[in-house]
Here is the input.
Amino acid sequence: PYDATVVAKLKAEGAVVLCDRYADSSVAYQGYGRAALPVQEVHELNRIATGGLVPDLTLLLDVDAAAGLAQATAEGADRLEQAGADFHERVRAGYLAMAAAEPERIKLIGRASVDEVASAVWSHVEPLLERSGGA
Here is the structure.
């Protein structure tokens, strides 16, 4: 589980910390997808919950919502996949809006071959590792 104190300490020591889904996911799913709260309120709740900790880099692996949903449901639908195509279109639109608003932090990687995606990911991650000394 995520612990803001541990992540902040590791970052202060120069470590690179990798997370699968962080605060941006809350904004995309709760703010854009479910529209449970206004997007700005979800951002503010994230700021409070994380102590203001923001990733240096977010990789957005973009897949058309219908294609992604089809692949996910073929593997067995969970609660999120059962939310339907409209929900997933709103979530994707939310992620894309965040990427457009923060292009220096959120790097968009489109659907491609495994090798092409791996190369794109590495092109963004390698400089962070070099700056941290590989920590």
User: Anything to note?
Assistant: The mean pLDDT is 87.
